[in-house]
Amino acid sequence: MEILFQFDVRTVALFVAMTFFVQATAIGAQAFLIRELRQYRGVGAALMANLCVAVGLVLRLFIGWLPDFVTTILASALILTGPVFFISHWVNSRD
User: Fold this and answer.
1) Whole-angstrom Cα distance, residue 40 to residue 34?
2) What is the pLDDT along the chain (95 residues), one digit of tens a residue?
3) Minimal CA–CA distance to 64: which of 7, 6, 5, 10?
4) What's the CA gap between 47 and 60, in Å, rounded?
5) Domain residues of the chain, as ranges?
6) Closest CA to 27 of 51, 52, 55, 59
7) Paired strand residues for 63
């Protein structure tokens, strides 16, 4: 059976970035709806982590169109900053 389509790495990165944007939207809506409740700490960290990864992946899609500093340095820093938000919240909440 012959494969009639091909996925490029950029296509996969686009789908992953869209998934992170959808997840960030859901977390943002949750943060807006429960902003008075203090028992749900970490929603802001999860929102920022998802946004950082999503923006970093979208910037990586523009290799060749944007300057190398933006597509390489800034995008990589954003992609690595996302998990740092999760880890820092986890470490700070263990008291």
Assistant:
1) 8
2) 677 777 788 888 889 999 999 998 898 888 777 766 666 677 788 888 899 999 999 999 888 898 998 889 999 999 999 889 888 877 776 65
3) 10
4) 20
5) 48-95
6) 51
7) 66
